[in-house]
Amino acid sequence: HKKTESTPFRICQKLCKSSEITLSTLSVYTCSLKNIKQMEYFVLFRRTNQIKEELRQVKRRHYTIAIREWKKKKFKNIHCLSVLIFLCLNSQGVRKSYREVIDVSWGDPHRAGVKPLSFVRQVLAACLYPQLMDGDKLMVDVKQRAQRLLKTCAGGSVGSYSDAAGIPQIIQSVSEYILRRDGGIPCHPENIYITPGSQWALTVTNILKVLVNSEASPRTGVLIPVPCHSTTIVSLTALGAVAVPYYLSEERGWALEVETLQQALDSAKGVCNPVALYIINPGNPAGYVQSRKCIQEVIHFAAEKKLFLLADEVYQDCVYGKESEFVSYKRALAEIGAPLSDTVELASFHTASKGLMGECGLRTGYVELVNLDPAVMKYINNLFSTNSCPVLGQVALDVMVNPPQPGDPSYPLYLKETQHIRASLAENVRRVEEVINSFPSFSCQSLEGGAFAFPRVFLPPKAIEKAKEAGLQPDTFYCMRLLEEAGVLFSPGTEYGQMEGTYHISFCIMTPTDTMEEILKRLSTFHKQFMREFA
């Protein structure tokens, strides 16, 4: 359909009439136009599936040809068949310069080829099929963990329901983990809720439902960083809120500056009533890590402006900058002391989907609430009681917050595997910065944490014009050409938001090192050709 006939455009028109603001203003403060940009990603996603199917068909066709020739010539040696298949796959009939698409548009380590941690999978397997513990293939500590966790499940089965807030013993484990992480600052289990993922905790369940009044006039506003994952913005506006953007400073390594928060508040005057400040630390997708000083400045700002703090800290285990350190917002708040430590309201989110575990498919996370009024807590408890997190995901969460320790039978392998993931990530960071910044038309800020790179690409005017002719954003056009010609799927910066006139690409760096080398090799070849074409 033409853009003027699309559903998102009609929604935008209705919203403009109802709120009596211009379409250009609406594009800044809501995600209705964001939905139009998302349609561009769906174009990328659909084309990716088409290319994968084309490659499968080519491969099947060449396998068929090879087997037919093998039978026709009556070769008996299986090695001859292997040679024929190789020759067919490398024949002129293959239309693409690659045999498979590498998809690093998601923050999904396992999809990208990172191997699951053995201890996690062994405990999960033992809980799913307890008979595995009868033999001697599992370590003693694996069996002990599985047995302990099964005792916490109703009927001794992970197939049973759990309490709405989560299994109490696992909540206790999460509480002890937070206590250790924050240097002994008290953590109360009754303030913790286990949820089907951190985004679910933030949006569908309930924290935003408490904050957002969909019938208020002016509407409720939430300050959102740019860049920021579009899922959060979509969820916000679906609840009737207004996303108020504050722009991170790319020139200063995507630093969060309090001045920009004030500018965002000023821009919201007459449009909405901001009640919350959403923070992502470590950054997704920009890869920054906030300093303790920066965090404390943000807390003071939130206290002064009476803003509820929403701290997305899901990549807290992925910090690799030499001078970077993860400090939780809860810890920084406690270190400031009274009266702020007793009054600033905070929700902190973490998940088993990210970090070293990368168990995205298990959809499990938690939220800890700090300094909320008891009456509000009672209401939130009622909201959480409508859904409970799958028990298997809670098992994974227990393993994440309480991994094998020195002296445990599983510890040597666990240490080896986690060190390998960390070393691979550090090497990928080094190579991404080295290769990306070797091109004059690219700029990648230092990566300090998280699982993404978000480099800026300086596109030639001819490429920008060509993108307009294709009805795409320039960085989406770049990603589409990269997909077609190199078989690599990135996300365009337009999906996350960016300063007007700038263009970015985003890709997951939590991959095996050989995969990242292949990605950078394909990107380098493509980018040189692309820039020559549109010079």
From TrEMBL:
Keywords: Aminotransferase, Pyridoxal phosphate, Transferase
Obligatory cofactor(s): pyridoxal 5'-phosphate
UniProt GO molecular function: L-alanine:2-oxoglutarate aminotransferase activity; pyridoxal phosphate binding
Pathway: Amino-acid degradation; L-alanine degradation via transaminase pathway; pyruvate from L-alanine: step 1/1
SUPFAM superfamilies named among the record's database cross-references: PLP-dependent transferases (SSF53383)
Alphabetical list of InterPro entries matching this protein: ALAT1/2-like, Aminotransferase_I/II_large, PyrdxlP-dep_Trfase, PyrdxlP-dep_Trfase_major, PyrdxlP-dep_Trfase_small
EC main group: transferase
GO biological processes: L-alanine catabolic process
Catalyzed reaction equations: L-alanine + 2-oxoglutarate = pyruvate + L-glutamate
Enzyme Commission designation: 2.6.1.2
Domain Aminotransferase class I/classII large, chain residue ranges per copy: 138-523
Annotated signal peptide: none
Record has RNA-binding as a keyword: no
One Pfam entry name: Aminotran_1_2
Xref: Gene3D superfamilies: 1.10.287.1970, Aspartate Aminotransferase, domain 1, Type I PLP-dependent aspartate aminotransferase-like (Major domain)
Family: Belongs to the class-I pyridoxal-phosphate-dependent aminotransferase family. Alanine aminotransferase subfamily.
Subunit structure: Homodimer.
Stated name of the protein: alanine transaminase
Species classification: Eukaryota, Metazoa, Chordata, Craniata, Vertebrata
